[in-house]
Design goal:
4% of the residues lie in helices and 39% in strands. The chain is mainly beta and 182 residues long. The chain has a single domain (28-178), classed as Sandwich (Jelly Rolls), CATH 2.60.120. A six-stranded antiparallel beta sheet has the order 3-4-5-11-6-9, with no helix packed on it. The chain is globular.
Length: 182
């Protein structure tokens, strides 16, 4: 069952007055089958600077985890607690479901992946561990993480769900991705 995220969108009426144009649940929420987490696409832009003149809802489409080329994504993700005995997830299947294809990255954990983006992660509720290639960091509600295209996995080792707001902005591929590539 997906958890709803209220989304309020402002805009302008015909006279140019600032108004609320939408107020309700973000319509593009789904449970990812491979990982069981709930991902709600709150907003997406296709370019920077963003075109804010269209009344169309840019979230009413299928899109992977990474932002569009030159664009951005705002997503709320609810991470369930890690299953007893580990994830039991195939890394390739997980990345395919997330729309990611950045080569074979080391898979310390089945949830390991990376995006060509700068990510702002704001922990709203609960706590979570972020695994990197050979280290990890524990985050709790109120913490903010800035991620620069690193290989990582989000693991909820608590017994309660963790909710994170993610803003991903398209970025240039970091030089570190080319290390060891011939």
């Amino acid at each position: 069952m997906t958890r709803q995220t209220r989304r309020v969108i402002t805009g302008h009426d015909a006279s140019g007055k600032a108004v609320v144009v939408a107020d309700g649940p973000a319509p593009n929420a789904k449970v990812r089958q491979v990982t069981g987490l709930t991902s709600t696409l709150v907003w997406v832009t296709d370019a920077t600077p963003a075109d804010i003149s269209s009344p169309a809802d840019p979230t009413m489409r299928e899109i992977g985890v990474a932002p569009p080329l030159g664009g951005s994504i705002l997503r709320i993700v609810d991470f369930p607690p890690e299953p007893k005995g580990g994830a039991g997830v195939d890394n390739t299947a997980m990345k395919k479901e997330m729309g990611l294809d950045h080569g074979n990255t080391p898979a310390r954990h089945p949830y390991m992946h990376r995006t060509k983006s700068i990510d702002y992660a704001l922990v709203l509720e609960g706590e979570i561990d972020m695994l990197l290639d050979d280290s990890e960091v524990h985050l709790k509600a109120g913490d903010v993480l800035i991620q620069l295209g690193t290989n990582h996995a989000w693991i909820n080792n608590s017994d309660k769900p963790c909710r994170i707001a993610f803003v991903l902005i398209d970025a240039k591929e970091p030089p570190a991705w080319k290390v060891g590539v011939e």
